[in-house]
Amino acid sequence: MRRFLLKVVITDYNKMEFEEEKRVFESVGAKLEIAQCRTEDEVIEASLGATGLINSEIPITRKIIESLPELKVIAKYSIGVDNIDVEAATENNVFVANVPDYCQEEVSNHALALIMTLTRKIVSLNQSVKQGKWSFHEGVPLHRFSTQTVGLISYGSIARNLSKKLTAIGFKVIAYDPYYQSANQETNVELVSLEELMGRSDVISIHSPLIKETYHLVNKEVLELAKPGAIIINTGRGSVINEADLINALKTGEISGAGLDVLEQEPMDVSNPLLSMENVILTPHIAFYTEESIQELKRKTALNIVDVLQGGKPRYLVNNLIKI
């Protein structure tokens, strides 16, 4: 019987199989253990002696990190790592890794689908036809894509992928990202302030990670700057938008519609007013998903751990100031 010297724990998961991860870890002499933890104490108990953790949604807190002295790496099944205490990990010489490139095609396509559906009023027109109203007047007014501007909040890899698709079908694209410096030179996308983006954009598409600086970035004050009749799209993180403020802006007509794949509370409460708004399209945090993207995510997450087990750093390192 093979003796495993290294232990890797999956802390939580959502309807997944793990054959691919098991093969990856067995090839380097590591044993994969699968848990479905709901509390800090359950994570600690399941992970004692572990060198690596693979995490989905449960918070990985300072208490957990400091309770696992053999821990060297935490890898997230995701792009965002907002549920991991990265500061505590860094202070304890624990690598944090994500997979920032696994679903660029999927999320940009999903955002594009929401943009096109709302700007062409596909859902409302479908409903009007089913109600016996056969008239193009039900869609008035519509405008050419070439007359409209899409403003991207954050200009990371997914937003840049989306930008190419938008410009190919005629939209003008501008972007707000205080951390990005070279949009003009690379893609002819104009970088503007958040205030200018809100005032110029017919469609505002959010792609921000959730960090302290972006929590409720799009709030009442920012929404009041929006161009009349603007549409909001969010395939980034739910809490980048103050949801109560968005609901109010939709009710007053300041914002004419929204396409949301992410929300502040997931799953949604059945009393959420967004559920009854005809000018809102909701999808269940699915923008990341295709069968191909999931397989890529699983493989790359496992390889982040393997990199550390073999004495290196994760290929997708988040806390890059770590010193070991």
From TrEMBL:
Keyword Cytoplasm carried by entry: no
GO molecular function, one term: NAD binding
Family: Belongs to the D-isomer specific 2-hydroxyacid dehydrogenase family.
PROSITE patterns for the chain: D_2_HYDROXYACID_DH_3
The protein's name: Hydroxyacid dehydrogenase
Listed InterPro entries: CtBP, D-iso_2-hydroxyacid_DH_PdxB, D-isomer_2_OHA_DH_cat_dom, D-isomer_DH_CS, D-isomer_DH_NAD-bd, NAD(P)-bd_dom_sf
D-isomer specific 2-hydroxyacid dehydrogenase catalytic domain boundaries: 19-319
Organism expressing this protein natively: Virgibacillus profundi
Keywords from the UniProt entry: NAD, Oxidoreductase
Keyword Repressor: no
One Pfam family hit: 2-Hacid_dh_C
Domain D-isomer specific 2-hydroxyacid dehydrogenase NAD-binding: 112-287
